[in-house]
Write a structure and sequence with these properties.
This protein has two helices and two strands. By secondary structure, it is of the alpha+beta class. The protein has a domain of about 35 residues. The chain has a two-stranded antiparallel sheet with strand order 1-2.
Length: about 55
């Protein structure tokens, strides 16, 4: 879930995620690593998309 809140200097973005299921359960460390990479990448991707407008 993504929540966008307008603040004085811009927009505050919050996310909530869950990852469950057979694929995650089969290799929890790998799933956590992949999730971690995504959590590091999405803020810069979101910023680039917002500034391209």
């Amino acid at each position: 879930m993504w929540t966008f809140t307008k603040v004085r200097d811009g927009v505050l973005v919050r996310t909530e995620e869950t990852h469950t299921g057979p694929q995650v359960d089969a290799d929890v460390p790998l799933a956590a690593e992949i999730l971690g990479r995504g959590l590091k990448a999405w803020p810069s991707d979101l910023k680039a998309a917002a500034e391209a407008r």
